[in-house]
Task: structure prediction
Amino acid sequence: MYHKTKSYRIFTVFNYIFMIAISALCVIPLIHVLAVSFSGKSAANANLVGLWPVDFTLDAYTKTVANENFIRSIWVTLQRTVLGTAFSMGVVILAAYALSKENARFRRRNLYIWLLVFTMLFSGGLVPMYILIQKLHLMNSIWVLILPGAVSVWNIILLLNFFRAVPKEMEEAAFIDGAGHFRTLFSVYLPVSMPAIATLSLFTIVGHWNSWFDGLLYMTDHRNYPLATFLQSVIVQQDFSKVTVRPEDLENISQRTVKAAQIFIGMAPILIVYPFLQRFFVKGIVLGAVKE
Amino acid sequence: MNAGKPRKKSKWKSTISLDLMVLPALILTLIFAYIPMTGLAIAFKNYKPGLGFSGSKWVGLEHFEYLFSIPENVQIIWNTLIIAGLKMIAGLIVPFLFALLLNEIRKMAFKKTVQTIVYMPHFLSWVILGGILSDLLARDGGLINQVLVSVFGIQPIFFLGDGNWFRFVVVVSDVWKEFGFNTIVFLASLAGINPALYEAAEVDGAGRWQQTLAITMPAMLPITIVVGTLALGNVLNGGFDQIFNLYNALVFDKGDIIDTFVYRLGIVDGKFSFSTAVGLFKSVVSFVLIVSAYRISYKYANYRIF
Result:
């Protein structure tokens, strides 16, 4: 047994140490930010904070939450996430069900699927899209954050592969009982596909939560910024001209601890949702990615 | 022919309801994907928003000639290729090796914990990570420079303000964010290897290292080809989100990629036509690369997407 050889044991010890080191590398940056966000202003500015808060205070969080723009951007994000996920999943589920049928039974399937897949490979690009959104008068509308990205072809493909794994007998039984396609989808396919649908929904939720560029591009009125765009403009760009702030707020926003608090609030929901998501996603991804 | 009972056309046979189900996706795709494609025509025009789409003059390939005639523009393409190429290579090797090592861990609870932790950065946006990185990498007092200065006693490094360091940061931080998540597909492939092969090798007296070379490596070859060739389609994608959230005017010369260039020129400076031409150039090259990559991976690894 190789497990008992000396060299393999030495390897194993180093392997465990290496794994711990790599894991640490992935969490240390997050812990550092968390520590800064709970630290006193002067300690943070003097670079005294490592991985543990110095002069513990919730000051940064109270200042962040008191910022009206921040709160409003959270509201925009909640709206887009709830509406956008429901809308997108509806479109994706319907399309995936129809496109999961065999070519022989649904001849136009091939045409439809190529129309969709082509958009994954080729696109008009940034400027034509921007001009289109202007022409449609969608600038500053919440729908601009929801509609353009609603058809995720990738999600449709993942889900249609999942639907194909549903035993044919269940579908036939539903048909004999007189159900049509809509009924079969809702009463047979959806209940047995919950893990896949949960995974894709959570991916969609994370996508909406993290999405910042569409906000930057299509929201000319900065009061409509979603949270990620707001964070992008104050943390990354540090461009306060785009976000209306009172002069007395300016110092607070640019403060290191407040930035850390904003970063942490921005990622906290993901960190909370993620462990639940992780249970499902490995299966979903592998199902869509590896085929024999 | 079927004189007996006339075949009743059941609602199951009809595909109208299936067509209806695809309809919402098709309408949205038509509006938000195919209509913008027609807008690519402005790459061959001198588009002026005031004159509108049809009122603007045709200029042929002028914008494309300009793209390849200015050294600064060619530099942008070069930057994109270098950054995307390095990411591609590192992004293939690191997850592959990490999966091999992780596969040797026998304690399931430990393995699961490591997996949970290393997958996590994938789910954070570059806005968040950009904020964290610029804090960590700050020249004055960033945690990393503090460690470098106190442990190695070197001068603080201006990671985000020096072009060469910037590229290094971009590649390393991309690998850091994605290596865990990209391990998934390799781990799945490892799990699919028949254990009987290892048992047979052990009976023959092969050590773990020999087993890895003789069994694991060949078994991993197809998925590695798939991941590698599919990544090839991204060779003009340097990663807009990441670069945009990390760069600044100091590193435009080494850090500007096609996508960020298109944004700055097209949206910020309003050079609609030229920037669309640059975008079209990228789209066409990417399209050819992706389609070739799919063909190669279909041929050599029998991979298909649906």
